[in-house]
Records
---
Amino acid sequence: MENLGITPWTLVGGFALVFIILAALRVYPTLWLCLPIPLIALFAIPIQMQGATRLTIALILVPIVTLSLVAAADLITLPAKTRLRASRRMAKVASIAAMHDTTLTIENLGARSISVDVAEDAPEHVTVEPEHQRVRIPAAKSGIVHQKLVATRRGQYELKSVFLTCRSLLRLWKRKLVLPCKSPLHVYPDIKQIGEYALLARTNRLSQIGVRRTRRIGQDNDFERLREYQQDDNYRHIDWRATARRQKVTVRQFQTDQSQRVIFLLDCGRMMANTHSQLSMLDHALNATLMLSYVALDQGDSVGMLAFSDRIHTFVPPASGRRQMNRMLHAGFNQFPGLVQSRFDQAFLYLSQHCRRRSLVILVSNVVDQVNADQIQNYLQNLVGAHLPLLVLLRDHRIFDAADNPSPDPSVMYRSAAASQLLLWRNQVLRNAEARGAHTLDLFPEKLTASLVNQYLEIKARHLL
């Protein structure tokens, strides 16, 4: 073989060169093809050392030529990218942390059946189960792949392509293909709590989610409808004639104040990036906003939203009706806290320019410095009279845990003292805001929804708007 200039390393190098060229085309040998190559090279080494004869050369070249011809013939059976198409059927809208069905259709335009491994090109925060599936697709037919999609973060995403791994007829080669298959996906906050509220409201069990029945101060004189008596209804509203006619206790329901406005100011700055239960403070604020929006719209009021940080992110003008809920969802699902300082001056200036009618203005934020606290207090004071301001500050569990951690360790003691001082300052900020005419709430994020709904219902009952 030396006379021919062929050595075992020449064989290995030749095969390696071929594999490198094919790898550039995203074609790779399988284990079935890779195993014989080192065996042939190991068989040729002792022959090379003892001296090659025609017989030994034949013993080496015959398996090499045979393997090369078989591999080349099998290589041709790999499907070309142009012979495959992918399409995806899925809902454009999804809820966070909920399972959603997706269906992939792989169309085989070739003349023979193929076996492919299918994987989704899922973006970050989106997982697809199972990650890989193998499907056999007959010639000129389509293969169906069923999957489950879960998004762990709300926002706007796009599934751009599908990864395929195709194998040759003898399974000596495999080809990796990327087929374009674009599908937009809008992940909205989980609105399951809204459905639960509607169900509990119909069955008079809102106390199970922390919503209290609020007795109205004074009376609304506009009669709305007759309905069956429920616990805690005023006995003076019982309609005895209707009760006798229906053979069950019936009360008169009066129409509450309607066509009032609720506007949410959502702080999307750095102080809303703290997380609890894998949700940021802004996530909790958005969930509570959507819940209260549903309640207010059900009461006949109008709702709007202004999201801001160092700029105005989005503004939903106040409106009523069922479509407004969809507008609120679409405007808020793609809002995330940024590591920037919030510009409260811009937010309140924009509010004054676009909302002149008296409204319940709910500012949801978190403050830890005197500068922002002074700004919030001053701007809320300016709203008093023209609007009814409600300041909602979200508590950070880490600060409260640090304050409630007695320990003789000096470092822990200093940390606890600093946290306690911050909480005292925070309480003073709330008292100052109340002294200037604003209503306040100081809550942990997970307690926000029920408390905010209760505060709204109390304001409605006291006719403060």
Note: Residues 81-188 form a domain with the Immunoglobulin-like fold (CATH 2.60.40.10).
---
Amino acid sequence: MNQPLSVLIIEDSSFDAMVMVNVLEQGGYSVEHEQVETSKELTHALEHGSWDVILSDYNLPEFSAPEALEMIKQSGLDIPFIIISGGIGEDVAVAAMKSGAHDYLMKGQLARLVVAVERELGDADHRKARRKAETDLRENELRYRLLWEHSNDGVVLMDAAGWILFSNPAMVPMFGLSDTTLLGKHMGHLGGLGGKDSEQAPFVQELLQSNGQLMEFIGVREDGGRFPVEVSCSGLEMHGRKMYAAFLRDISERKQAQRAIQLHEERLEAVKEIQQWMFPKVPPSIEGYDIAGVSYPADAAGGDHYDYLTMEQGVHGFVVADVAGHGMGPALLMSEARAYLRMLSRQQRHTGEILTKANEVLGDDLSFERYITMIMVRLEAQERQFTYSNAGHPAGLLLSAQGEIKAQLKRQGVPLGIRQQSVYPSSEVMPLDQGDILFLYTDGFDEA
């Protein structure tokens, strides 16, 4: 019999919601679900339903995953929250995880969904069990030992001086103990101190006075291995004596994840510096023309780019391009493409020849997953005319002085890197009238 699962889906696409439900049902769940699209609908669902897991798109027309996360925090509910989206970068996903999301999956790549739900349901059960253990610890001392014995976290019961009266089985693997009990040893022993020194361990004194607040210290295993430990400590009365129960957790994996996030952020900053360095500092000065280029980067650094190219006398080149994806790879590919375009623009006369040659030389570094869309314009300033070539890029616009669309610079071929043998044509000569505007952009303009 399939395991029942109550799922709240924050999604504006009914099709995408049904895809998620089908994946879960194929994974062995009997799914009951509700789809919401706004904060009002989410509030109603949280007040009138009981949910095992929440699956949320990142951006909706009237709502977003960060807003939903904040609402759930304020409600006090502990429900696994998994973001399933197709349009955000790694750094946005990392920020969402920092804000409380439990996992992130890409739409169209839901192979991990069942595993992620199973893991988060298990983690939610553990959190629930820990909260219950801490509450029951103050309510019924007869239940303490059973709860502690089966806790996934390490549990130590101490007297008011820090001497250990009880330790649960989870402490054995955590500290690599050869003996199954720490009975009779001082709490300072867990920090690698022995004898009289253990009694003077500063972290033990701080722990006994922490009043339930989370602390960290460096634990030392029997083999000398050191690892970070998160611990909380609560006082209680047992048999008329003041005692302290400490709950310990090995947070090595969390620390590694934090270091990985920090490294990712440092790399992202380096990517952004590379990206900004590649943009031209000033536009060319051409009599009779106003020329400007600007980039408004999203949080995720990627391969969006524009450039001004030097061609033959009296002719100027303009390029807008976009490498698929975000991060260091696309930024470096765009840097390589920029160098080739600057070189080819001095050797070739026509835009189609330049894009064809660029596709040939860049082909080995590009693929179906990592390609470049590009539009290039060749402006003959004195003749007031231009030609262009478009390799899978959003169509540029030729606007009149009144803002009407006179022509679209449509796609003439696939993006660079899709087919290394592609030949890109140059358009017919297009005239420019007084006041005309030629507007080139990347797909981020449409998305915004």
Note: The two ends are 46 Å apart (CA to CA).
